Amino acid sequence: MLQSTKHRLSSICDCCEEPFAATGVSRRQLLAGGAAAFAATNLPAKLFAQAKPHRIDVHHHVVPPSWLQAMNLIGRSNPPLINWSIQKSLDDMDKGGVATSMLSPTAPQVTPLGKEAAVRIAREANEFGIKIMADHPGRFGVFATLPLPYIDESLKEIAYVFDTLKVDGIGMMTNYGDKWLGYSYFDPIWQELNRRKATVYTHPTDANCCVNLVQGQPTSGIEWGADTTRTLISLIFSGATQKYRDINFIWSHGGGALVAFAERFLVQWVSTQPYQGKFTREQVQAELDRFYYDTAQVTMAGTLAALAKLVPVSQIVYGTDFPYRTAADHTKGVNATFSGDELKKVDRENALRLIPRLRSA
């Protein structure tokens, strides 16, 4: 399945076709002129900008004003958020060859704000994203924020964002304090999103259980990857993903720690209680194979190649985690791992299955 990927990893490389094409110089000319300096892992960002942007970034954060004010009040703002602007988003997209970015607030979204503030700020954030879309046609999409953990209020917001705002999907956290997405608590949300055949983009956040565990280490560095895996597995082994098959899930950061833990779920869990006889390895793999996984913060060769061995390349979508990382940085990493048809799938084609309106954007 990954012959081209293996080739790229073993021969860095004269096979990064797109950036060379963007220079208007043939591969033969580049090689004759000492093109080793243009190896995929060292290409300057300006080369990506010269090609027509075509990538779809499914992991691109937006900073609505009222949301940022709330984050300041609860001590959750940081320099990348404070310094964010629409123009900086556009500039970064152009440098990395990104045509369209899907906007969503980062953790903790509106969860810690209390019901009244969560409802108001989620609505304002969603309307802010739609205004950006209108002001910059074709450049942005929106994964809407819900005022979770408040179920009734979230169902009302789902109706509004899909029926009135016409968003592209929903952005959810991997947990809501002490509740992960496979818990029955979320069944009303899944029932409605399944009815709408919705795309659900997920982003990790702090869980009540797991903050300040390792002195001096931020939760986002270790626990967020683990939390993505926790909630992903909770959905599979609760039976939720089998029940709500019309929801398309996107997992941030390549599924978090999934690649490292996958053997436990595929081998050990299905052969011991309480899951023995209820799930088979093939059933669990089938669920993993239908999820989508973004490339944000996992574009090192070993990490991304390992993900592409666990799940089909058709399920990997381009993501950057802007403003915490850059599109150009991720473009280099993705280009160093994939080529040809695989690269086209990861850069754009896989995301088009989730957001078909972008075919004409």
Which key features would you list for this structure?
17 helices, single chain, alpha/beta, disordered N terminus, TIM Barrel, eight-stranded parallel sheet, 49% helix
Enumerate the spans where pLDDT stays under 50 for 5 or more consecutive residues.
Answer: 1-49
- What percentage of the residues does DSSP assign to strands (E)? 5-15%
| Class by alpha and beta content | alpha/beta
Gyration radius from CA atoms, angstroms: 20 Å
Shape: globular
Termini, distance in Å? 31 Å
Give me the CATH architecture, please: Alpha-Beta Barrel
Task: Describe the strand arrangement of the main beta sheet, using strand numbers.
Answer: 1-2-3-4-5-6-7-8
Tell me the number of structural domains: 1
Main sheet properties: 8 strands, parallel
Question: How much is the average pLDDT?
Answer: 87
